[in-house]
């Protein structure tokens, strides 16, 4: 028996085709778990315990089908990792110009909130119904340090993560008596993932009055991080696996910051 003892447990991971989610999928497979990767874009994993289920987490019907698929195939769900998320930098007010594309619009607001927040509630609700019948389960929400600290040019994203932290606290209070834990993980600055597209960098640079080059130099400037480096995706995956396991059996209702000691974003 391994220390984590999560062999043969069944986990749904959203956004498991890239970045943090992919690292989580791979770490779980290494521990002999069964993993259903719910993502809009498909990625292969050469492992018999891996399934891809095409899912847009902002669509209720996709989520219903995902949960049905998992139960039909594996008869149970031990935990759900709400990892999928997007970030589109936008200012509240662009005082440099009128009619700016970099000002928050209701379309962008809806897009961010539908994926980062509404999708999480819809999937957690369906999984929690299964967990209640089973008598156990874990909901893990992927937050961000920005949800605790705020972030210039990323107010909508940071607000979606702060709201997620609040879901984590409230759902833990609602579901604790049913032996269901609800936990969050809030990474700070990490090695590069799919979130760092050119469109993202251009928008963030604009909102901070910097060039994309200056922004890129900032990635290696770790002076605000006490551990003086960015985090590895595998370090986030390690924390996720611990929280999913019974080793974390008395932890619920909290969002754990994993940011190398950085506290101001
Ligand atoms: N990378 C970081 O530094 C960092 C820091 C803090 C928090 N986070 C959070 O970690 C999570 C993962 O981020 P990442 O950096 O690995 O991003 P990423 O872009 O590399 O991966 C996100 C995955 O989610 C999928 N996805 C996007 N929209 C989806 C939808 N509607 N339905 C299903 N899947 C969808 C994408 O296809 C992609 O595979 C996000 O919630 C993000 O906010 C990331």
Provide structural commentary.
This protein is an alpha/beta fold and 265 residues long. The protein has one domain (10-194, 232-258): NAD(P)-binding Rossmann-like Domain (Rossmann fold, 3-Layer(aba) Sandwich). 43% of the residues lie in helices and 14% in strands. The protein has eight helices and seven strands; from the N terminus they run E-H-E-E-H-E-H-E-H-H-E-H-H-H-E. The chain has helices spanning 19-30, 60-74, 106-134, 145-149, 155-175, 198-207, 212-220, 233-244; strands at 10-14, 34-39, 50-54, 79-82, 137-142, 180-187, 255-258. A seven-stranded parallel sheet has the order 3-2-1-4-5-6-7, sandwiched between helices. Helix 1 (19-30) links the parallel strand 1 and strand 2. Helix 2 (60-74) packs parallel to helix 3 (106-134). It is globular. The model has no long low-confidence stretch (mean pLDDT 96). Nicotinamide-adenine-dinucleotide is lined by residues 14-15, 17-21, 39-41, 55-58, 83-87, 115, 142, 144, 187, 190, 193-195.
Note the topology:
Blueprint: E1 10-14, H1 19-30, E2 34-39, E3 50-54, H2 60-74, E4 79-82, H3 106-134, E5 137-142, H4 145-149, H5 155-175, E6 180-187, H6 198-207, H7 212-220, H8 233-244, E7 255-258
Parallel strand pairs: 1-2, 1-4, 2-3, 4-5, 5-6, 6-7
Helix pairs in contact: 1-8, 2-3, 3-5, 6-7
The structure holds nicotinamide-adenine-dinucleotide (NAD).
Nicotinamide-adenine-dinucleotide binds at residues 14-15, 17-21, 39-41, 55-58, 83-87, 115, 142, 144, 187, 190, 193-195.
């Amino acid at each position: 028996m391994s220390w984590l003892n999560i062999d043969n447990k069944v986990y749904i991971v959203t956004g498991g085709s890239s970045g943090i989610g992919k690292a989580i999928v791979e770490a779980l497979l290494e521990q002999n778990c069964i993993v259903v990767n719910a993502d809009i874009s498909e990625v292969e994993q050469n492992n018999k315990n891996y399934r891809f289920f095409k899912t847009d987490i902002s669509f209720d019907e996709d989520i219903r089908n995902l949960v049905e698929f998992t139960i039909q195939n594996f008869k149970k769900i031990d935990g759900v990792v709400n990892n999928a998320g997007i970030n589109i930098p936008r200012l509240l007010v662009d005082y440099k110009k009128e009619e700016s594309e970099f000002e928050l619009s209701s379309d962008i607001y809806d897009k961010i909130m539908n994926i980062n927040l509404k999708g999480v509630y819809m999937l957690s609700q369906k999984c929690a119904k299964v967990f209640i019948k089973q008598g156990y389960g874990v909901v893990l929400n992927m937050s961000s340090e920005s949800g605790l600290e705020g972030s210039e040019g990323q107010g909508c994203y940071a607000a979606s993560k702060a709201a997620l932290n609040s879901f984590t606290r409230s759902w833990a209070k609602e579901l604790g008596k049913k032996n269901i834990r609800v936990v969050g993980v809030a990474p700070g600055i990490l090695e590069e993932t799919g979130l760092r597209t050119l469109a993202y960098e251009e928008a963030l640079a604009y909102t901070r009055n910097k060039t994309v080059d200056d922004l890129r130099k900032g990635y290696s400037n770790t002076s605000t991080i006490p551990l003086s480096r960015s985090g590895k995706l595998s370090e986030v995956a390690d924390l996720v696996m611990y929280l999913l396991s019974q080793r974390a059996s008395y932890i619920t209702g909290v969002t754990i910051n994993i940011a190398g000691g950085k506290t101001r974003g």
